[in-house]
Fold this sequence. Notes:
This protein has 828 residues and is an alpha+beta fold. Helices cover 45% and strands 14% of the residues. It has a domain at 11-346: 3-Layer(aba) Sandwich (Kinesin), CATH 3.40.850.10. The structure holds adenosine-5'-triphosphate. One of its GO terms (cellular component) is microtubule.
Amino acid sequence: xxxxxxxxxxxxxxxxxxxxxRPLNEKEIAANETADWECINDTTILYRNTxxxxxxxxxxxxxxxxxxxxCPTRQVYEDGTKEIALSxxxxxxxxxxxxxxxxxxxxxxxxxxxxxxxxxxxxxxFQHEERAFSVKFSAIEIYNEAIRDLLSSDGTPLRxxxxxxxxxVVEKATLETLRDWNHLKxxxxxxxxxxxxxxxxxxxxxxRSHQIIRLTVESSAREFLDKExxxxxxxxxxxxxxxxxxxxxxxxxxGARLKEGCHINRSLLTLGxxxxxLSKGRQGHINFRDSKLxxxxxxxxxGNARTAIICTLSPARSHVELxxxxxxxxCCAKEVTTKARINVVMSDKALLKQLQRELARxxxxxxxxxxxxxxxxCAMTVRKKDLQIQKMEKQITELRKxxxxxxxxxxxxxxxxxxxxxxKSGTPHFGNHTDKCEDGSASETFDLDKRSFISDGMSxxxxxxxxxxxxxxxxxxxxxxxxxxxEDPSEEYCREVQCIEVEESATAYNNHxxxxxxxxxxxxxxxxxxxxxxxxxxxxHRETVPGTSTPPENLGTDFLGRPExxxxxxxxxxxxxxVSRNDSMSSCGSDSTGAQSIRTPLGEEGGITSIxxxxxxxxxxxxxxxxxxxxxxxGKMGREIGLDSMDGEFERQRQxxxxxxxxxxxxxxxxxxFYLLFKGDEADSIYIGVxxxxxxxxxxxxxxxxxxxxxxxxxxxxxxxxxxxxERKMLSKLVGKRFSGEERRRIYHKxxxxxxxxxxxxxxxxxxxxxxxxxxxxxxxxxVVAKLVRFAEQGRAMKEMFGLTFTPPSFLTGRRSHSWRKxxxxxx
Length: 828
Ligand SMILES: Nc1ncnc2c1ncn2[C@@H]1O[C@H](COP(=O)(O)OP(=O)(O)OP(=O)(O)O)[C@@H](O)[C@H]1O
């Protein structure tokens, strides 16, 4: 019989923070330094300078463990970091890093910890012959904000790439499959030789870069290898030796050392800020992207990983300030929570099979009502669902009306545009309009019928805005001095910008998604960044490996495995809002991720024939997961699959959206509408989820140099940039119309534009939405664009119309819905 896939839970835990005090070194002793710090027990370190003046700083600091100078690294490893490091063999990502001022003992500590941990990992592997393991090694350093591969003599900086599934990825980093202990030692020596080291007055061999050594461990049960239902555990452990903070005056650095010191301090400052913000509970924007170090470390700092930080200290009085800084960092770090999961990778076949089984089960249950005992419950549920369906049907009718109204307005508007074009060129146009684009690229036929597509869906403001801008892209008379046209197309633009969906877009989008499937290797997984197949390898070098430690028991058995590729994943979307039906639908959207792999069969196999079936199905899935969760860990599962409310996620997601808008050159009008409409109500979660997925997809396509489809248009990074440029030009035309002279002056002032500067309107619109990190600017940009497009007059109805493709009538009315499937991708 086939194994049932467990739905493991995520485990939230605080970062483990250890403090290691080194003894005074020879130089410090020679300089008659006093040791001002003392570990008074296993968890507390005390500042003992009796001469110190009254200070605001505390004298005692407590952590998970503190270690005195004479304490060996082995002990720091054994009772602190070992358990975390060994999580990797159970499919849980983990990181151990050393933080502290220069010469405080980071490299000393991390080199020992790395070797002990790898020895134990080897040991575990040899004790578990029933599983086939593969261990890969990679090492990079971040030197002066450039990333270098420590396993390659080629000094070319490596690039960071944002991968929608894997997060931030270092491109083209060498990945060595570890053979044995000697191989590991060889690689470690290579890293040591390659790493940037320099002499400062505080440390003869001061590390001038942040070093990250990564081991990626994969394992599969031999019994199931090459079988359809094989699953793989895959996780990485990072050993991170940070460069040390330093004062230029103390390190006596100059020239190259000084420059290095500046880079080191800057990136550590960003790390400190990130940790400080995370310690306060992840509200607001967390600036992970401000340095390469924090981008790479993002998962260890609050993401899907277990993390230990070893803060190293010098006891010397002369270093008291830096020591205090380190302790403050450590105090914040101990408040940071991470949420590690078991990372399970399923083969495509196994995944498909499981989903088909699940689908069949749900259908059977719906067709044959449950046992008499639960009939009553069932009837209640059905009644409830019926009521919900009726309510939604009403909403659909209402939305249809709004859509039809928008459609007729759009048609009027298009007629007006054609008329306008015809009168300009002197040639009458009926129905079709050939649209010349600014870049001189191939013109496009603008067909009213196509534009009014609206059979089932509605477009996002983005698509409509673009349609309008395109239809006017021959208007280059944007200079402030040029006379304005007597008609004001912007009026229509403002009204129409809210409308309608191109149904074809969904189809094309879907097709693209299908095209996205990556090449698979024999284990059914994608190739890694180097194009190497990620394959199982058995381990055959028992005799060469030192260390005999026993693996920790029961590590993470109650974790939630979340996919990076085809992992078992239940929908990421928040299900908690009142629009639960919509949420349910979204869980069936098409995506190329693991989530998609789950969803596709539902749609493609046509197992869902009515909304009731569908809703029940999803509900059942959620319930099933809830059961597993209860069995394993009292109810956390609910949160994992999003049954709770948005839980403060809103701010984080909104920040992500702001950033993605900028990256993907999303229409300013779209941004404004979205920003002003969705302020974090419970019911907004679905829209936010939809927007995020759409943007992530678009960004992903762009970053691969591919096209994305948006409302039926093929977009590339370049074309989206151009569209945005055209939109800015259009908006610049409205500045004079919408704002009085006084208002304009005020706005120019706000955006730092000289009142008498040339083309100031264009300057202004170029400033709008130009800095997603500056929330004041975001708010003001939204305000200005809203006024330009008269958003305020459009009312709340817009919210419901905003890209609302998840209530396709044909689906809800029970028709077997082709268009439903087509409309789904806009959810992602
Ligand atoms: N706990 C310790 N016990 C004994 N010696 C130590 C200890 N920690 C560090 N040292 C010694 O102190 C010196 C500096 O240590 P190390 O190079 O590890 O510091 P670091 O924090 O990595 O410095 P940098 O940031 O400049 O690279 C080394 O000679 C090391 O052997």
